């Protein structure tokens, strides 16, 4: 089942978020698992721009798993992934390992937050 709220916002300006788009496009091994609900005001506020960012980054549909939850926040993967708040976006690498997770109330939009985290996660560790 897909989420109507993941339909890309047609007014989202990719040029204003070039670094975000580049960071999301850089890793072709990532899968985005998005838990939300079309009934959820936070999802309606945050996910259309996230959908637009993924589209601008050229992330193919087969790497985006949209998981609709009911109003009790129940649905596929809720227990397995310990989903409590929505929207929640879990980013996994090619081996299915969780790389980073966005949960509902970060201080910046999901695409920007995930891009920042992915850039940090992708940086080589330095010796002290």
Automatic annotation (TrEMBL):
Residues 37-95 form the Thioredoxin domain. It comes from the Archaea. Gene3D superfamilies: Glutaredoxin. GO terms for molecular function: isomerase activity. The keyword Heme does not apply. Keywords: Isomerase. InterPro entries: Thioredoxin-like_sf, Thioredoxin_domain. This is Thiol-disulfide isomerase-like thioredoxin. It comes from Natronococcus occultus SP4.
């Amino acid at each position: 089942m897909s989420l109507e709220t993941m339909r890309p916002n047609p007014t989202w300006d990719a040029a204003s978020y070039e670094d975000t788009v580049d960071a999301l496009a850089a890793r072709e091994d990532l899968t985005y698992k998005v838990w939300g609900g079309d009934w959820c005001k936070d999802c309606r506020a945050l996910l259309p721009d996230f959908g637009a960012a993924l589209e601008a980054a050229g992330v193919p549909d087969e790497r985006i798993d949209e998981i609709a939850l009911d109003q009790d926040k129940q649905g596929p993967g809720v227990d397995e992934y310990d989903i409590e708040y929505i929207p929640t976006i879990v980013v996994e690498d090619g081996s299915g390992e969780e790389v980073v997770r966005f949960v509902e109330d970060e201080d910046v939009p999901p695409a920007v937050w995930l891009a920042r985290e992915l850039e940090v996660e992708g940086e080589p560790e330095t010796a002290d």
